[in-house]
Design brief:
- The complex is a heterodimer of chains A (99) and B (492).
- Chain A is 32% helix and 0% strand.
- Chain A is built from three helices and no strands.
- The longest helix of chain A has 18 residues.
- Chain A starts with 6 loop residues before the first helix and ends in a 21-residue tail after the last helix.
- Chain B is globular, with a radius of gyration of 21 Å.
- Classes of the chains: A mainly alpha (99), B alpha/beta (492).
- At the A-B interface, helix 1 and helix 2 of A face helix 10, helix 11, helix 12 and helix 13 of B.
């Protein structure tokens, strides 16, 4: 049985996942994730020596297509759902990245 | 032609000119107007748009085009992109997202003469087994409105069961087509991994997601599969394997087929009600000439932990795209920083179960835990796949109940994540192995709730599953009939 997840670890995972959590949600998630990980941990009992991990399901090898230009979305269509664009509607706008 | 007509009947009536596509759509729109305020199977229906599309189909038919789904209204799960029609995955994150293109399956349905009737409710980003995780409120089960329709494709299942649509599309990661089909008394087919293009499906777990039909009859499932299946250059995981004659397979029967039953895997957790109906289905298959073989799937009990580790790890990567930059919700940060915008947007935009899964998946992939959780789960997945390969070398299909119990009450499991995850205990195996599986009705419990029989087959052998399903459907003792009208408003 793995040790319970601490609030500090929950905060670390939330930071990795870029999710802001309230104190209440963080406390609840610490309990829930502890339970789920204890349950999931039973796979440690399975002998997987010499068993390769499944990394893909297709029987046939991946095929690369020819790199040929083809019609695609016009810029205004591609940006139609953007929360904010520049005045000309050509770029996505985001908050300042560099100080 | 009435609201109980199959897609095949509607197609034939429209093709003969007995009824127009517009009249067919009006019939279903009037049922939706009467019943959906109670059921909440649909998230959005645009009646004017439906009639405009139907008018175009009538024109194409008049021009002499042979359309395999002429005038057939189709309900589409809201995880599938529809050009110009809001597509939300039942999430606040996407509540105003209007896709600039159709998913390949939607393109193929439209080309075949089908009309998109509306978008159906589901668990947020398809994460759930009851449709209660929708940001827009739950769907009710037409058989018992105080119960869930299952999930995550619960809206599509409820719509077909209540005849708000003759057929629907769902998506299935760990059972999201089959489980709600079972709980609503309809047919649900998860095709082989790679059989159907996923271009335009909002991604949850890319090594598991599949799109498939949810229908009233097995013949309609075959018809729908024949339209949506096949390679697609927009999806590199779609397979070039040749299609079978799915409709031609329907009359094959089960005589001489070997059907495996993993007796040990059924022992824990399957309710006696469900077990009784399952045994009756097996007896019916035997009397129709199938041989029942006891098989073993030794790693079946690890399928739920393996599934929830792999699916959540993949989800944590797939859902990284919802960052408030290119589309979807953005919550402006008061300090003007990009990182706070990311965190706040995702904290506000995602619901409780989605956050739980992203957190679990992020943990399973993080330094120090990757080997013990994610990679270990991938190794056990290999053993689960080998179990199925060994079993299917000897039998033509594997039969189990689709779900351990019939439909559960709204609110019963929604605050107990592990209890909810166990609703998928019999469906995640085929998902992990990449195999096709179908759920067909196999009678009612003593409490008059539908029970589903699940048949899992060899890769790309949907035809055998359809043939077996067709036999089950024609057995009087296994049919479920109509949901009772009790609890639902009268339809004019």
């Amino acid at each position: 049985m793995p040790a319970p997840l601490t609030r500090l670890e929950v905060a670390r995972i939330a930071a990795l996942a870029r999710i802001e959590l309230s104190e209440t949600d963080a406390a609840r998630l610490a309990r829930e994730l502890t339970d789920i990980l204890a349950f999931a941990g039973q796979i440690a009992d399975v002998d997987t020596r010499d068993v390769p991990p499944t990394t893909r399901l297709q029987a046939d090898e991946p095929v690369l297509r020819a790199d040929e230009p083809a019609p695609s979305l016009a810029p205004d269509e591609a940006l139609a759902n953007a929360p904010e664009t520049d005045a000309a509607g050509r770029f996505v706008k985001v908050p300042r990245v560099l100080g | 032609m009435d609201a109980r007509s199959t897609a095949l009947d509607i197609r034939d009536a429209v093709t003969r000119g007995d009824v127009s596509a517009v009249e067919v759509c009006d019939l279903f729109l009037s049922r939706i107007a009467a019943l959906d305020p109670t059921l909440h199977a649909f998230r959005a229906v645009d009646a004017d748009l439906v009639r405009r599309e139907a008018t175009l189909v009538d024109r194409r038919r008049a021009d002499g085009s042979a359309l395999p789904l002429a005038g057939v209204p189709v309900a589409i799960k809201d995880t599938l992109c529809t050009q110009g029609l809001t597509t939300t995955a039942a999430s606040r994150m996407l509540d105003r997202f209007v896709p600039p293109y159709d998913a390949t399956v939607v393109t193929r349905l439209r080309a075949a003469g089908a009309v998109v009737l509306g978008k159906t409710n589901c668990d947020e980003f398809a994460m759930g087994s009851s449709t209660e995780n929708s940001a827009f409120g739950p769907t009710r089960n037409p058989w018992a409105p105080d119960r869930t329709p299952g999930g995550s494709s619960g809206g599509s299942a409820a719509a077909v069961a209540a005849h708000l649509a003759p057929v629907a599309l769902g998506s299935d990661t760990g059972g999201s087509i089959r489980q709600p089909a079972a709980l609503c008394g309809i047919v649900g087919l998860r095709p082989t991994y790679g059989r159907v293009s996923r271009y335009g499906l909002i991604a949850f777990a890319s090594s598991l997601d599949q799109i498939g039909p949810m229908t009233g009859t097995v013949a309609d499932a075959a018809l729908m599969l024949s339209v949506i299946a096949g390679a697609d250059r927009a999806d590199a995981t779609s397979s070039a394997a040749p299609l079978a004659d799915y409709q031609g397979a329907l009359g094959r029967g089960v005589h001489g087929l070997r059907i495996g039953v993993p007796a040990r895997a059924l022992a824990p957790g399957v309710s006696s009600d469900v077990r009784t109906r399952f045994d009756a289905a097996i007896a019916a298959l035997t009397s129709n000439g199938a041989a029942i073989i006891e098989i073993d799937l030794p790693h079946a009990r690890y399928a739920i932990p393996v599934y929830y580790l792999i699916a959540t790890a993949e989800a944590s990567a797939n859902l990284a795209r919802y960052d408030g930059v290119r589309f979807g919700l953005r919550v402006e940060p008061e300090d003007g920083s990009l990182d706070v915008m990311y965190r706040r947007t995702r904290g506000v935009g995602f619901g409780r179960e989605v956050i739980r899964r992203i957190m679990l998946g992020t943990y399973a992939l993080s330094a120090g835990y990757y080997e013990a959780y994610y990679e270990k789960a991938q190794r056990v997945r290999t053993l689960i796949r080998r179990d199925y390969e060994a079993a299917l070398a000897d039998v033509d299909a594997i039969a189990t109940p689709t779900t351990p119990t019939a439909a559960f009450a709204l609110g019963e499991k929604v605050n107990d994540p592990l209890a909810m995850y166990m609703a998928d205990v019999l469906t995640v195996g085929a998902s992990l192995a990449g195999l096709p599986a179908i759920s067909v009705p196999c009678g009612l419990t003593d409490g008059s709730l539908p029970v589903g029989l699940q048949l899992t087959g060899r890769a790309f052998d949907e035809a055998t599953l359809l043939a077996i399903g067709r036999v089950c459907e024609s057995e009087a003792g296994l049919a479920v009939g109509e949901p009772p009208a009790a609890g639902l408003p009268r339809v004019p």
